[in-house]
Amino acid sequence: MLWSQNASPLRSQNLCFVVCISLLSGVLSSLPELSDKSCTFKVTLRNFRVILSWEVKNHSIVPDHYTLQYTVISRPDGVKTVEHCSNITASFCDLTDVWEVLPETYAVTVDGFRGNTTLVTCFVDFFLAAYISLEPPEFDIVNFIDHINVNVNFPPVLPKILEELLQFHLSLIIEEQSGEIVKKHNPVLDENVIGNFTYVIDKLLPNTNYCVSIYFMPRNLEAIRRSPVKCTLLQPARDTGSSESARIGGIITMFLIAAVFISTIIILKRVGYICLRNDFPKVLNFNNLSAWVFPEMPPLEAVAFVEVIHINRKKKVWNYNYNDESDSNDEATAPLTSTGGYTKHGLLSGLPGPTSASSATGQDCLEPDTEEPNLSELEAESLMAPEPSPRLGKLLQDRFSEDGSSTEEAGDKIIFNVNLSSVFVSTLDDDSDIPPVLPSFPEETYDLEDSHTLEPSFLASGGEGTQPPFPTPSAECPCPEDVLSDKNDNSESDVDIGDGYIMR
Amino acid sequence: MSTKPNVIRKCLWPACLVGLLITGILSLDCNLLHFYLRKVTWQNLRLLSSTSSSFPAECLSETKAFELPQEILSHTQPVKRYIKEAFYEMSIQAFNIFSQYTLKSTWESDDLKQIQIGLDQQLQYLEQCLEEEEKEKEDLKEMTEDGMNWSGALVPQLSSLELRRYFNRIDNFLKEKRHSHCAWEIIRAEIRRCFYYFQKFAALLKKK
Q: ∠ CA(B142), CA(B143), CA(B144), 5° rounding?
């Protein structure tokens, strides 16, 4: 192999030179590893070109020109010299058209000369598929109202090595950044992509600043080399032609407002703040106007009105005049005079019922005196009562039928049951000229006009079933003699209305 | 008798790990085989690149062309089963070659161990998926009695033979050079190249 024949003497000379240099510089270097420690190599894909660059580590060594040679390890075809990379002053070489096969190990030798003296020899092997560094391609951006066109400049003819790179190893990434929001776009590249490649970034906001950057992303998770960022400010949307995004935003805003309004109404209605319920109970239902205007009257109760009449009573001095045969002992036969007042009348007959007819005064269980005024007053009031009780009515009828001789009906009893709870009381004028129409009673009379002993008395009467205000007659009856004597002597004491009750 | 429970306790934890490993391998989805193969193969490729600093210049005179099979080099798309069988053959042969590595070379031992572990896992994954395909193929043969399937099976056998021959040449080269440092460096470069082409094959599995 030519490479192996020429390599040994050249390497020995270089070795001596390097050793001398290193002794001068105070740096020791080992023989086998001389070449790869002298330079730093780098293979990059720059603008779709495979560029091999190198740098001498020892900066004191500055060659004038370089010569590059290479060989493929899997193909023992010898060392190959790159003509356009021989005696070059630049420290890089374009090997795009030289290295066509990607998965090969290329052994490269770079000799640095000063004049005809080899200053440094650098040797390195590259497995291109694993070591190639991908620089981003050149691109331009064109901004519109709501989108940006990104033009990536591909070469008119894509090298073979790039075809395989783009097909199997690389993905073109276009980054769009606005503020802190970064979006990545991965355009699909054809296998034979050539010329300018245009990618459109749409759905952008007008009058907004966007920055675009592109790079090749290795599919094997190798290092990424990002392109410089290019920024642009999109044009504002025109009035005549409103952007679709603004219109959509307006529609969405309207829907949101309507939704908020409707939900507020629903909530207020459910809470009861508005549209209060009007389903009242039946009792409070006033829609039935007739029932409201003309309510049903409660059933009427049997009411008997009682009028309370003031009775001016005075203690009458009994003028015992025994000449008069009209003995007061005979209570039943005592005539009654009425001077405009009330007459106290004994209980006479006239009441329906066997008891009243058969009973004598001595057997009277009730104080006749006490009952007489009741009777009289009841009779008087019954004249004004709208619905007197039947019994009372009967009594009055009998009384009117009598000609002051009710006392002749001895033994009749009148029992009144007066319900005090249903008493309607009213007062009459004392100066009333018209005396109340009362039946004449043979008993005492009271002058209503006498106000000295005016003591109002309150009576209670009622319809049927009333109860007396005073004790009911008991089974025990006073002695008839006592009764008679009481009647004769205690006429003025028969009626005691000190506390409003007629008592004996 | 008392030592048995202790032995059981000591072996229980490793047994559980092995069981989990076997279960994990057995539960591997063959639909993701292409992804796994591509990833492991590229990883082995990078390990081979880093295990040695650089190719010695003095070894350039001993380089040899080992003639990787054309089916691997070409961009044609073979059938899926052939790709899996080729992967299987390549993994076995490469594993056997790296097992012959001696300590005379300056390779990083850790990198070499990782390469061997990756190849071993790859083999287990491929065995599982190939067995599944074999069962499906037998069922299909009983149903269709199609001669095409039988003829298709011959193709992968030939390609596997070519691969086997390729690796035999490599093995013979090592033995001829007596496993010298230059021989290992030349073999390292060649197998790295082989790994690259198989990594492209894995992408074809996905497209299929």
A: 105
Residue boundaries of the structural domains of chain A: 39-130, 137-234
Distance from CA of A104 to the nearest CA of B (A): 7
Confirm whether B62 is domain-assigned: no
Residue B137, burial from CB neighbour count under 10 angstroms (0-12, 13-18, 19+): middle
d(C-alpha A376, C-alpha A448), whole Å: 14
- Give dist(CA A434, CA A381) in Å, integer: 15
Distance from CA of B146 to the nearest CA of A (A): 36
Contact A320, A462 (CB under 8 A): no
C-alpha to C-alpha distance for B79 and B101, rounded to whole angstroms: 34
Chain-chain contact of A73 with B63 (C-beta, under 8 angstroms) = yes
The verdict on a CB contact (< 8 Å) between A35 and B64 is no
Residue at B171 is within a domain: yes
Task: Judge whether A11 is closer than 8 Å to chain B, CB to CB.
Answer: yes
Q: State the DSSP H helix or E strand holding residue A222, giving kind and residue range, or none if neither.
A: none
The alpha carbon of residue B10 is apart from the nearest alpha carbon of chain A, in Å, by: 41
Contact list in B for residue A103 (CB cut-off 8 A) is 193, 196-197
What total of structural domains would you count in chain B? Answer: 1
Strand partners, A139: A152
Which domain does B115 fall in, by range? 78-141+157-207
Of B186, B200, B203, the CB nearest to A73: B186
Q: Would you say the ipTM is above 0.95?
A: no
pTM value surpassing 0.95? no
| Cβ burial, residue B85 (10 Å; 0-12/13-18/19+) | buried
Q: Which CATH architecture has domain A137-234?
A: Sandwich (2.60)
What's phi and psi for B124, nearest 5 deg?
-65, -45
Same fold, A39-130 and A137-234: yes
Note the pLDDT tens digit of each residue in A60-115.
Answer: 888 999 999 999 999 888 889 999 999 999 999 999 888 888 888 899 999 999 98
Which of B62, B66, B181, B193 to probe the A interface (max A CBs under 10 A)?
Answer: B193
Q: Considering only residues A253 and A459, tell me which one the structure prediction assigns the higher pLDDT.
A: A253
Q: Give B147-191 pLDDT, tens digit per residue.
A: 554 444 444 555 688 889 999 999 999 999 988 889 999 999 999
Flag whether B23 is in a domain.
no
**For the domain that residue B117 is a member of, what is the CATH number?**
1.20.1250.10
Asked if the C-beta of A4 comes within 8 angstroms of chain B's C-beta atoms, the answer is yes
Beta strands at A148-153 and A139-143: parallel, antiparallel or unpaired: antiparallel
3-state percent helix, strand, coil for chain B, nearest multiple of 5: 80, 0, 20
Name the CATH code of domain A39-130 (choices 1.25.40.390, 1.10.3720.10, 3.30.70.20, 2.60.40.10).
Answer: 2.60.40.10
Q: Chain B within 8 Å of A104 (Cβ-Cβ)?
A: yes
CB contacts < 8 A, A to B, total 67
CB distance B192 to B49 below 8 Å: yes
The alpha-carbon gap from B148 to the nearest alpha carbon of chain A, in Å, equals 32
Instruction: Flag if A4 and B61 touch (Cβ within 8 Å).
Output: yes
Q: Would residue B132 count as lying in a domain?
A: yes
Residue contact B60–A4, C-beta within 8 A: yes
